[in-house]
Write a structure and sequence with these properties.
The structure is a homotrimer of 277-residue chains. Chain A is of the alpha+beta class. In chain A, 22% of the residues lie in helices and 25% in strands. In chain A, helix 1 runs parallel beside helix 4 (130-143).
């Protein structure tokens, strides 16, 4: 572990009550040299799927060795398992409720443990704030040099919770997905990942339908999009996204996370229509 | 003082205008090795009582030596005293307006000084931003090795401002308190602390009344609470709290900070009804 | 460059999506010892003028050597230039769109480069997130010891974008400005800087007009202002500001950023009416 290990935090705790700061105080008591980076504390309350998505867009940009303390935990105080993972030379600590879905579905080799050694908890953990009493101390012990294997009993990777994924395209050139996220600017990020997004954007006849709206405009960049009209583009993570320049697509289209989005007219002959980019 | 002293910040400055960042810039100029942890900058504007409460829930989780720079300061520019305290091997810097009420009422030995040595201020302090011009520099000088006693003249602890406290239970098994805080999830934290909260939760006939609502349901954990109905539980600080699972108790009950809450039916024979927990 | 260089961030990315955290992750991979201070990530979306103003109020409070990573970038993906500046022993990295107007208009000697060396970018930069792919990596390379001159080709300072400034007073004792900013408390900061603000506050007959409201009340400090009535004062940056004690001046006067503000009755004989302060 590095001399100044990095702990990145992602929670739905909000910024009003001091909860993220309290977790950092606890961790400094255990790992005095730890350094903290906030990813976000504004995951919508108890919205595990959005938390998983944001973690997915963020974690590969951090150096190896980073510990991701991730707590969106509607099941706190129930039987859901507290876990830690090692994946791609980084660490993930939090509840086993799907928050690590994308890590589990994209990293070939993952080692998992159940956080069942209470000597690594705060004394007398509460029933309501495992972020402070269990997850933060375990993350800090990792930062201080305890190994993943010392933190708890091994878990079978196959036993871990993964949120249901997305469908591949059908033979008629259609594919159905969902809105994963509406960002700060009201841009809508779909569940269509980079490879499929490229296919959609480069298929001349592809059309996106969401709610009662049909969108065929597309642009190579956000700034190249038409004004005052929704258009498709690949967002910075490569996912297909929908935007309206100078306005909120989410508000304009009355769309929210989880809404279905459908593509038709997809050219299923890969590469046939591609131009240099 | 540690090689990398920790300064924890709590203010009502908000996050839009850059004020917390400016204070950190000032402190880095004085204490280049200082490390900063934000507790919150979203204390409701000028709400000293809520600031005091959040500080109370947070400070004991930080390592000894931590300096708490706390600025909720409706009286900036008036005669209220700028102070610094040493309590339980930690330091507190801010205005003497009740923000440190819980520190003063819970720590037996507190040393206090008036921040009256302007060589520890920024030059030409403004009348409107003592956080930047007085409190941040004084906190940073503490971090850089100046002693509390060097920062200013000694103050009598008894002279410091403490917000009025709460009543003990009456002989008829009733007790009156207030709502101290409504958190990010809309959970309502009452002024009944850990010891009294235990008595309330374990008295079989106890009933809580707030506004026009009477609550007798209770749960050992948040997750064990009934669905769709307000219930009592002990929050992570041990205080009696009111929640509705999957909803905001504050919104549902139309309750806000400062509202009165009343308990009746309290069993005054301590321990008589306790079960193992 | 210091052993632990400081990178201060100012963006309009918001706090929900994790974008600032992602930029920090990228930077830690390049400059492992960098330390981060958030100025704000809540600049109103794509509001370059407000971003420039907040940066102006903040940067001089940071130590020399600080690198200001500043991204409010409505033109991302278009031809606007990515730049870096050295001014007053500090560094500024971001788009050339007016965000650095106040730096350019207040610092005599500024060195500027175009960020045209893609070996300092992330590989395959996106069209939509230059904060992550271009600006953060370039800032981190500065922090890691690359010189400004190595980051790109020299730019003529005169070619850089500066937002249109303000007028000097007219011969009849009137001067017109704008509302630059409405802060967290609803205080309105005008474009009248410290010197002119002093003239206005000390001219006995000066009157401020905004919308349909005329204001002649003034106070030396915020706390000394009248209750329930708008008044003028010098805010902590020295600019003329308008406040209502215990209320939001912005809401009460129905004023927003960019609105015109007019002073009349200004005494143009400098110093003639000054008293000690």
């Amino acid at each position: 572990m590095a001399a100044s290990p990095v702990i990145a935090l992602l929670t739905d705790f909000g910024l009003e009550d001091g909860y993220p700061g309290i977790m950092k105080g606890v961790m400094l008591g255990i790992a005095p040299k730890a350094r903290f980076i906030d990813i976000t504390h504004l995951v919508p309350e108890q919205d595990v799927a959005t938390g998983a998505w944001i973690l997915h867009t963020a974690w590969r940009y951090f150096p190896t060795g980073t510990i991701f303390l991730s707590v969106v935990d509607p099941g706190v105080g129930t039987g859901r398992k507290p876990i830690a993972l090692r994946a791609d030379e980084r660490y993930f600590v939090g509840p086993d409720n799907g928050l690590f879905s994308y890590v589990l579905s994209t990293v070939p080799s993952v080692t998992a443990v159940l956080l069942d050694r209470d000597e690594y908890y705060l004394p007398n953990p509460s029933h309501t704030f495992h972020g402070r009493d269990i997850f933060a101390p375990c993350a800090a012990h990792l930062a201080a040099g305890v190994t993943l294997e010392e933190l708890g009993s091994p878990l079978d990777r196959q036993s871990l919770t993964v949120i249901a994924g997305q469908q591949p395209p059908a033979g008629d050139g259609s594919v159905v997905g969902t809105i994963l996220h509406s960002d700060h600017f009201g841009n809508l990020i779909t569940s269509f990942g980079p490879i499929l997004a490229e296919e959609i954007l480069w298929s001349p006849a592809s059309i996106l339908t969401i709610g009662g709206t049909t969108i065929s405009a597309r642009a190579a960049t956000f700034a190249a999009g038409p004004v005052g009209e929704p258009f498709m583009f690949a967002d910075s993570s490569g996912h297909l996204a929908i935007a309206v320049r100078g306005a909120s697509a989410a508000a304009g289209l009355d769309v929210r996370r989880g809404d279905q989005v459908r593509i038709s007219g997809l050219d299923l002959r890969p590469e046939s229509t591609r131009k240099g980019k």
